[in-house]
Amino acid sequence: MGLRDIAIVGTAQRPSEINSTFTSVELLLPIIQEVLTKVGIERQDIGFWCHGSCDYMSGQPFSFVAAVDAIGAWPPIIESHVEADGAFALYEAWVKLQTGEVDVALVFSNGKTTSGPINRILNLQTDPYMVAPLWPGFDVLSALQARACLEAGVVTQRQMAEVAWRSQRDGKNNPFTLSGTEMSVDELLSQPFTVDPLRAHDCAIPVDGANAIILAAGDAARRLAKRPAWIRGIDHRIDTQRLGARSMIESSSATIAAQKAGVGKDRIDVAELHAPYTHQELLLRQAMGLSESTHINPSGGALVANPAMAAGLARFAEAAESVFSGSADRVLAHCTSGPLLQQNLVCVMEGE
Amino acid sequence: MAELCAVVGVGQTKHAACRADVSIAGLVREAVDRALIDANITIADVDAIVIGKAPDMLEGVAMPELWLADALAAHGKPVFRVHTAGSVGGSTAIVAAQHVMAGVHGTVLTIGFEKQSDGNAMWALSVPIPFGMPVHAGAGGYFSPIVRGYIERSGAPKHIGAIVAVKDRTNACKNPYAHLHEPDWTLEKALETPMLWDPIRFIETCPSSDGAMALVIMSEERADKHAGPKAWIHATAMRSEPTAFAGREQISPRAGEMCAEDLWRKAGITNPAKEVDVLEMYVPFAWFEPMWLENLGFAPRNEGWRWVEDGVTDMTGSLPVNPSGGVLSSNPIGASGMLRFGEAALQVMGKAGEHQIAGAKKAVGHAYGGGSQFFAMWLVSSDKP
Amino acid sequence: MSEADGLMRLRLPIAVTYNWSAGPNATSHLAGLMEGKLIGKRCPSCSSVYFPARNGVCPKCARILAEDVTVGPKGTITTFCIVNVPFLGQKIKLPYVAAQILLDGADISMQHLIQECEAEDVRIGMRVEPVWKDRSEWGPSMENIEHFRPTGEPDQVMGSESGAS
């Protein structure tokens, strides 16, 4: 049996904010309406809804329940929620569309990343018995990884600064991100370490954000978009979380997911990588076998705007928009989850 | 396009107030190992893992599936996390089944778990929100006024909840995995238990449990080659609606009705009360048995309580409900929905042991969550559709 | 630390502090409470009046509620429960009546305390009114209302959907 042709046909993103006073519902409602308006359909036309968010980001159990209020779920709808980045909600919607039960799906995600201490909150993703009680936080764990990579010669400090410089330069042109500094690579390299060997610009800027994407199958996709971003391959994989049990200088889950998604079958014009630390972008490029000709994160990437639980779906929005506009033909969207690139989702999309 | 699939392995833990003998990982692994053994496969045969649990604050671990990748031997595999409140065990099984129906994977392992003794459920379910009035008192405080509304509307006598509770606790004694094994309940004794959230009595509430349920779901192609009994998934359905809006019917929410209507349509069922042999329904407070019987289209409106009183839902009745003892006897929240789905599968596989309903061919698993707003159901059968 | 079954257990509390925002759409509601007013909002699409307007949206229509509407202060009990179970962080003395109250002019009930009568005398359809705390204790919170009490007016006959919303 063959899989159906499924494409992204519309996206909407909210400009990033710090310390947003909006509630999650207030963040989501306009963005859901915007994507519906852009695609030119009503909420009743959506066969399946899927939401990605994390209770610990909002400090409230069942926080996603209120988000149903942003949909207008009446009459009742077919809907699901993942405790994960919206990119995983997109994956669930893709699976749902593959069953043939529905033809159009809307996925959305939100993260109020600046309402709590994100580094401390993400610490709660680690082993609750042996690691979490030490409260290392993600910055410290990532610094361990960065040092391992530097020592092994897999990345250099200059390459890391170049990633930061390029991300900040490109992010300035993106209305959805916060503009970064205008320092040169050399100036960046002269900045003090925050968590040695990481400097401030090596770590993503946590922001509050929300986004929504509409997916459609076959003819519905052709009807709803001039140039749909067809999903040619999508896959996600996980690695062990135990620091001592895996290689810190590679990401085998990203390698497998990229291979399953068919990354290597042809040239990738644009890759939107969800890399919250500069060295992780370099690791991901190697893990997925991306060549120098691929334009990495023209949006500026998660480094200049990282709404946790929405940053992965934002990569899908950015990659799909580059297909819509015709500026790219074959694109890659990626989402990572967990400490040290533990879990990776990779999707390859093409224009027709 | 939608392929046929079947449950070929079911495994659950012994549910208990505190499984101090195992970690969260050990608890999950106990269910997984049993499901894999039941399916006669190893983890190497599993293409993907779909895992669900209720709020992460119940244990204080954010997105614990990440850390659990080791315990699940999931390295290099897809691990997918679902969270749809109390319905999550059901939704998770459905999302897992859809991976197979979609033709994306051939063998999927799905897990629902909760280790409530690692945290404080009453706290986690009643985190006070600033600027509001802190009258909320856990799930019981939320659902009790709705139960009162049902009693008022249907004219049900006040002892109906206790009848359900005694039935489920008695059934649980036939289920070695159930948390509560309390064989000595009588209706008289039940009616002497104190009112916690009047009109809900102590006996009519669910326990707080540690536990996990795991299922192995295979594509038709693989299941056909698989020896042993199978539960063919004839239909799945999910519906959601907002928690609160003007004019909302809370006693019999529209989303629940639509979920059931969708299930009956997909499974070709015209008379659920006659055609369904056994029903594993999500009943965390006893009164929800008659309420859901009506909501799902089994009993006519305001008549569900009569079915309870007449013994229709007893193990010996024409529509046995929760022979496993149900949520009233074991409630590891994130697993509770999958326990309903898995117990339904066990019944049609003929593997329910002492609580087996003889000759069960069609069984329904049901779960709900949030403010009675998220619904998930499946219908499984010993025969292919 | 406790020992049972030969096992040693550690209790390790986790604390994370969040900044919580009620959102701009809640402003008129919360500002109203500071002045002893109950301000709800009307949906521009279905005309339902919400109090309090959660996130300032109509969940049915997915519309932002723009028009402020003063509701109450009296209301009718649509359903209730008597809470007898203690839990962590509880602020109110047991037993207490938690009731769903449909304020006059509102289309959705809200939950509050009923006092100044015996728990067994509380009934669906009972008319109630708010008892405010001393003004010096007011803040932007529904806690400004100490509780609701019976007005003594005749009961309101509720529709067949008693318990609905």
Automatic annotation (TrEMBL), chain A:
Molecular function in Gene Ontology: acyltransferase activity, transferring groups other than amino-acyl groups
InterPro entries on file: Thiolase (IPR002155), Thiolase-like (IPR016039)
SUPFAM superfamilies (alphabetical): Thiolase-like
PANTHER family: ACETYL-COA C-ACETYLTRANSFERASE, NON-SPECIFIC LIPID-TRANSFER PROTEIN-LIKE 2
Entry protein name: Unannotated protein
Species of origin: freshwater metagenome
Organism lineage string: unclassified sequences, metagenomes, ecological metagenomes
From TrEMBL, chain B:
Gene Ontology MF terms in the entry: acyltransferase activity, transferring groups other than amino-acyl groups
Organism of provenance: freshwater metagenome
Gene3D superfamilies hit by this protein: 3.40.47.10
Protein name: Unannotated protein
Domain Thiolase C-terminal: 248-371
Automatic annotation (TrEMBL), chain C:
Residues covered by the ChsH2 rubredoxin-like zinc ribbon domain: 31-61
Region annotated Disordered, chain positions: 146-165
Stretches assigned to the ChsH2 C-terminal OB-fold domain: 69-133
Signal peptide: none
Pfam families from the UniProt entry: OB_ChsH2_C, zf-ChsH2
InterPro entries listed in its UniProt record: ChsH2_C, ChsH2_Znr, NA-bd_OB-fold, Thioester_dehydratase-like
Name the record gives this protein: Unannotated protein
Organism: freshwater metagenome
